[in-house]
Amino acid sequence: MIASARFLVPTFLLSLAASAFAASPAPKPVSADLVVYGGTASGVMTAYSAAKQGLHVVLLEPTRHLGGMVTGGLSATDYAYFPIIGGYTREFYKEAATTYGKGDLDHPTDFLSEPKVGEAIFNRWLKEAKVDVRFGERIKEHGGVEMKGKQVTAFVTEDGTRWEGKIFADCSYEGDAMAEAHVSYVIGREGEEVYNESLAGVRPETPKHQFLWKISPYDDAHKLLPYVDPGPLAKGGSGDKKVQAYNFRLILTNDPANKMPWTKPAGYDAKQFALLTRYVQSYKEHTGKDPVLATVTNPVCFDHAKCDFNNNGPFSTDFIGKSWTYPDASFADREAIWKAHMKYTQDFFYFLATDPSVPQSLRDDTNKWGRAKDEFTDSDGWPRQLYIREGRRMTGMYVMHQADLQTDRTKPDSIAMGSYNSDSHNIQRVAMPDGSVFNEGDVQVAVQPYEISFRAILPKQEQVTNLLVPVCLSASHVAYSSVRMEPQYMMIGQAAGVTAALAIQGNTPVQQVSVDKLQTILRKDGTILHLDQQAHRAQSRIHPQP
After folding, report:
1. Most buried of the four, 46, 185, 204, 462, by CB within 10 Å?
2. Which terms does the record give in the GO molecular function aspect (predicted)?
3. Are 242 and 428 in contact (CB under 8 A)?
4. 171: how many CB neighbours lie within 10 A of its CB?
């Protein structure tokens, strides 16, 4: 069942209640076969598939909403070669498409839907599968995972509740449970020599989302403008601890009856967008076109006059350089980073809509759009989920790397398939010696459909034997930039749920689950595992993406 959210105690009341809490008995432990942490779309699929295999499943979600980015603004599904999307993930998108009178998933736009539609499906599925969903449950920052030897025995949430299980899954974007279980992981970019990857490390040439003409990053006093790093740019191919940019994916509408106006955010300062001003003011001179909202954002539109607005161009919704510390940050520091991203987003759109320095064409077009009143209704139309494109990445039994996407695309232990291009957003914006500004880190390289190894979601057996990691999985920065797409997270989650059931049935570590049994169940439930299987489906049922 889906339990109601726990109300968080206001900070100013914590000290008053401290003695009462100290005197209270510890909360009663809760037991299950599988305990899933993180109600992302992957977490939903992990819990759902395990429940369909007969397990008693508890799903812990720190917020009050299911679906992560799938229901948090990313409506423009990163489908790529969509014939490889199978299993329960395909059923989810089919059910969403049916809402709009579609359902065959014969066309790429069939994979686009409103956040509220996806969230309703996820809630209903878990209710029907009798998954015990607990909202408002975040694991303790320290001591959030209890272990006995190499086995996790319980997740511990902030009020002290122990969630005991036989198998555990960390399906969060942050990988906090994984880290608390002392599983090895990395943050940032490997150097090209680590896995012999030509796309690894610092990218000295990044033609996409780039300043295509010279713009100075300095003001009249030769001080750097906001949101520009002084550099210098490190050597091409060298590794670092930086992660690609995060943003919020806004759902905007041009329906006058449903849109909200842009209002001035608290603490707004237009000066932060001095570099953006220079870009949009010089845009027509260099392109011959008047700038509009699509010049600085990427709208993908769907039913009911709504669009998912993503990053586009050299200065957009990506808050470049402000995500680096997030993966390993404290909860308090993450909250500050989260709020800074939201403020940047609110300021960005208000600036475009109102500032007199913005060309009239861009201001007028921005004001045609507004947040949809019927989405994110408990957060004033602003998305609830920050797009954490990359955080911690486990170093597990097998590390996926560039070759797995390009040359070694088949895997005997495949649990799902990927097909989206290697897609890393920019990582830093740097002042260059020639007086220009340079966005660095963007990678956009096409791939062919490839198979995802079961071992990529498994920690090393010498570290922990009953934990699965479908989201912060084991991959290099280059490989993760493709496999990180939500349909892949969801399909991998389905495999994780089945793995949990097989591990319990066989009383074995997750690393020793029979791949043959796992693949048999996944095929039965419609998962596409291999290149020849997806080719047959494409020829017999589905037209590939043009």
Report:
1. 46
2. 4 iron, 4 sulfur cluster binding; metal ion binding; oxidoreductase activity
3. yes
4. 31
